[in-house]
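Reviewers of the previous submission asked for a worked example of the structure-prediction workflow described in the proposal, so we include one complete record here. The input consisted solely of the amino acid sequence. No template or homolog information was supplied to the procedure at any stage.
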Amino acid sequence: MNNNFIERIIEDAKSDTPGIAMQAILSGIDKRITDERFINAVKGHKDDKICLLNVPMNYVVRAALDILGAEKYNGNNACIMNMINEWK
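From that input alone, the workflow returned the following structure tokens.
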């Protein structure tokens, strides 16, 4: 994978623009990016409740952190559990 591509995803994950950050997080899941800088950027959105495509951003964040092995999700939210099960 191109190093510039990974760096761009990491930088975009830090964005305050929800759509940019969400796309970066989804790309990071897809590419299985576990770089500490990416994980920290994702964690920065744990409290973001904005909905994109009817899914709260913090749901995607919690799923991403579980999928990437950074934080185990121990809750019982069906939406988050479905994301984890589909992306693992």
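The CA atoms of residues 38 and 72 lie 17 Å apart. We consider this example representative of the routine output the project will generate in years two and three.
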